[in-house]
Write a structure and sequence with these properties.
single chain, 54% helix, elongated, mainly alpha, two-stranded antiparallel ribbon, 107 residues
């Protein structure tokens, strides 16, 4: 959401104090919290919204799911029925990108 008037209208529709909330988002503390949370999200690999980060406490790496359309896949993953073949994905990701191959062989 990029338009403050749209946000104000939504807050008013929800019968919230739009003026007080909009004033709060302009404070240093709120802006600093947003900056810190954004840096943390980037460090975890988040690159769009919505991004869902799942960590079962056993794996060292988080599983990231990006996009609203991933909710069905998330449900399967949480049930232990992930249809994704992780070995095949790792093999694919280990391959050199085509653009890099072209650059390397160019003389």
């Amino acid at each position: 959401m990029s338009d403050i008037e749209d946000l104000k209208a939504i807050l008013q529709t929800l019968e919230l104090n739009a003026d007080a909330l909009l004033a709060k988002i302009e404070t240093h503390d709120v802006k600093e919290a947003l900056r810190q949370q954004t840096e943390q999200a980037i460090a975890q690999g988040v690159f769009g919204v919505p991004t869902f980060i799942i960590n079962d406490g056993i794996q060292t790496e988080n599983e990231l799911f990006w996009g609203h359309d991933q909710l069905g896949h998330i449900e399967l993953y949480l049930r232990g029925k992930d249809p994704l073949d992780k070995a095949a994905v790792e093999e694919m990701l280990a391959r050199q990108r085509g653009i890099d191959r072209k650059t390397m062989h160019k003389e």
